[in-house]
Design goal:
636 residues, mainly alpha, Sodium/glucose cotransporter, globular, binds biotin, binds sodium ion, Sodium-dependent multivitamin transporter, transmembrane, ion transport
């Protein structure tokens, strides 16, 4: 970017940006030296399970609203129109299913890591696979989140790129490593407010500079930016109602249903009801966040009328263009550029801190504690803090990898969620809805799902065909207007409709279908392998780890068919099985958090006694004694 076009910060801007980092640090340090002073893993990793639904819900938003969304969504709207807005339709089922299926099952098991569920339901091997997959996904995603704001800032203001990456990374690592989940949640609350304020400021200024709302509307309408309801069923079409509204549901389930960052927040809620309520409260805030970033894209289009400034920005993508426009718009309004940059870094910090903390949690709970059950709390907490530092440095390295990707950051992030988050979602669905699935099937399913999603994902990057990218409406509108010859029009319309065939068509699958595609691949493979290697009976499965989805869906089916389908015992009824004391050997193996002596577990409506979950053989023995099968109605 040649210096003449660079936008410069005034002192006020630097002050505002500095204040944001200082405020985040202060909140983090406050939680490091208050309360239990972060001396136990229950406090450091689970915030003492004492959080209310408001901070939890704001923190749930912040975890997956990073600078990628703040920059990537407006760039998407500016370039392709408002089709992306339909992802909002996916938020309905994308949050209802977590609230009524995943949270009840996971919360009642009193877990610290979502992947403990996989050991309870399957085996330790499946748990390790799930944990490693999550770590892989989160480390790459964190790289994108650290890199995006720093790269955009550098492209527009010449702000030292790696200086910004280091500053963000270090501030975040410090307050996360010192303040634990409480610090992460409360800084998330503060950072979400800054994020909304920054976007609102840009929208208000942009509307005023474009001549008012009606003028903005006229320009975006003429510029063909308002996309209608595109019901094209073609799965290679990049963004349609189906890829966003239906494919997006699986993306949401992989993030808000089974992703450790979100599950940890649900589990940190005071009661299950608070957790479900926080999930409901996410809906309006998520719609607001989506609307703000979409409107910001429209306002920018109205202000700059589809001009393409990528020439000024050098080879960088549309993403930096968004920040260029914002800086250009806010020039001469001292403090606003600083506010927007603070908004950008707030979004990044709140996502990165959530990722650090959840990485430290799963590493401790899934990979370390089970092998060192005798580890003292003090040592475990110290190790958790060291892990947060380690992951902080690792993500700086991943930021460099993002530098090499070269795609739109929003697309990179959504692809990662689809390619890696989708298979993990499939693993949890296999476990919860199909009791006949066994551990071998689970591992084979996860492997198949990851292989397939990486095949299509990397294939699309290599052949640069991630969904047929239609000409942007701007040039289509201009080119298709009456002053071009008919021949040109025919040629042009064919160009955008050329159908790739065979493997190329497979690589052209819209990345919004990756989550659903890989999820179903895991379930299908998992069931086939389970049936080949000997399916489980429902009584073989640890009670409380399945959800009678088909029992509810096929309520009308006669009993004997439902018995074949298995999994007809409603979750509530398996609850009554849980009131049984566990033989001592199941305690302390890292599966279920051990409570400090004297620390009475907080009031929950979980039916599980705190310290244990019944072992399968113990359960089976009891059932045989009582001569009942799993399907008969259990006494309430
Ligand atoms: O913003 C990011 O860091 C990643 C972008 C992906 C956001 C996903 S899309 C569906 C859901 N809605 C959000 O606001 N975030 C996630
Ligand atoms: Na965020």
């Amino acid at each position: 970017m040649d210096p003449s076009n660079q936008k410069h910060f005034t002192v006020v801007d630097y002050v505002i940006f500095g204040l944001l980092l200082a405020a985040s640090m202060a909140i983090g340090l406050y939680h490091a030296f208050s309360g239990g002073r972060q001396r136990t893993t229950q406090e450091f990793l689970m915030a003492d399970r004492s959080m209310g639904c408001l901070p939890v819900s704001l923190s749930l938003i912040a975890s997956f609203q990073s600078a990628v969304a703040i920059i990537g969504v407006p760039a998407e709207i500016y370039t392709h129109g408002t089709q992306y807005w339909f992802i909002g339709c996916a938020y309905v089922l994308g949050l209802l299913i977590p609230a009524h299926v995943f949270i009840p099952v996971l919360y009642r098991l009193r877990l610290s890591s979502a992947y403990q569920y996989l050991e309870l339901r399957f085996s330790k091997a499946v748990r390790i696979c799930g944990t490693l997959t999550f770590i892989f996904q989160t480390v790459i995603y964190m790289g994108v989140c650290v890199y995006t704001p720093a790269f955009a800032l550098n492209a527009v203001t010449g702000f030292e790129l790696w200086g910004a990456v280091l500053a963000t990374g270090l501030v975040c690592t410090l307050y996360t490593a010192m303040g634990g989940l409480k610090a992460v949640i409360w800084t998330d609350v503060f950072q979400t407010v800054v994020m909304f304020a920054g976007q609102l400021a840009v929208i208000v200024v942009g509307v005023l500079q474009s001549g008012g709302v009606s003028e903005v509307w006229r320009k975006v309408w003429e510029g063909n930016r308002i996309s209608g309801l595109d019901l094209n069923p073609d799965p290679t079409e990049r963004h349609t109602f189906w890829t966003l509204g239906v494919g997006g549901i699986f993306l949401m389930l992989s993030l808000y249903g089974v992703n450790q960052s979100q599950v940890q927040r649900y589990l940190s809620a005071r009661t299950e009801k608070e957790a479900v309520r926080s999930c409901y409260m996410v809906f309006p805030s998520l719609q607001l966040a989506l609307s703000l970033s979409c409107v910001m894209g429209l306002v920018m289009f109205a202000r700059y009328c589809g001009e393409d400034h990528t020439d000024k920005l050098g080879p960088s993508s549309h993403d930096a263009m968004v920040l260029y426009f914002v800086m250009d718009m806010l020039q001469g309004l001292p403090g606003l550029p600083g506010l927007f940059v603070a908004c950008l870094f707030s979004a990044a910090l709140s996502t990165i801190s959530s990722s650090f903390n959840s990485l430290a949690t799963v590493t401790m709970e899934d990979l370390i504690k089970p092998h060192f059950p005798a580890m003292t709390e003090a040592k475990a907490t110290l190790l958790s803090k060291a892990l947060a530092m380690f992951y902080g440095l690792l993500c700086l390295a991943m930021a460099y990898v993002t530098h090499l990707m070269g795609e739109s950051v929003l697309q990179v992030a959504l692809k990662i969620f689809g390619m890696v988050g989708g298979p993990v979602l499939g693993l949890f669905c296999l476990g919860m809805f199909f009791p006949s699935a066994n551990s071998t099937g689970a591992v084979a399913g996860l492997g198949a799902g990851l292989a397939l999603s990486f095949w299509v994902g990397i294939g699309s990057i290599v052949t640069r065909s991630s969904g047929t990218r239609p000409l942007s409406p701007t040039c289509r509108a201009i080119l298709l207007s009456d002053n071009t010859t008919t021949a040109m029009q025919t040629a042009l319309s064919n160009v955008t409709l050329s159908r790739p065939s065979g493997l190329k068509r497979f690589y052209s699958l819209s990345y919004m279908w990756y989550s659903a595609f890989s999820c179903f691949s895991v379930i299908l493979t998992g069931l086939i392998i389970s049936f080949i290697t000997g399916p489980l009976k429902e009584e073989d499965v640890t009670p409380g780890t399945t959800y009678a989805l088909f029992g509810k869906l096929f309520r009308f089916l006669p009993e004997h068919i439902k018995k074949q389908l298995c999994c007809v015992t409603p979750t509530e009824q398996t609850a009554s099985l849980q009131q049984i004391q566990l033989p001592p050997h199941k305690e302390g193996n890292g599966l279920v958090p051990q409570y400090e002596d004297g620390q009475s577990p907080v009031e929950t409506d979980a039916f599980l006694p705190e310290t244990n979950t019944p072992s399968v053989e113990f359960e089976t023995a009891l059932l045989q004694l009582s001569g009942r099968t799993c399907h008969e109605e259990m006494p309430h």
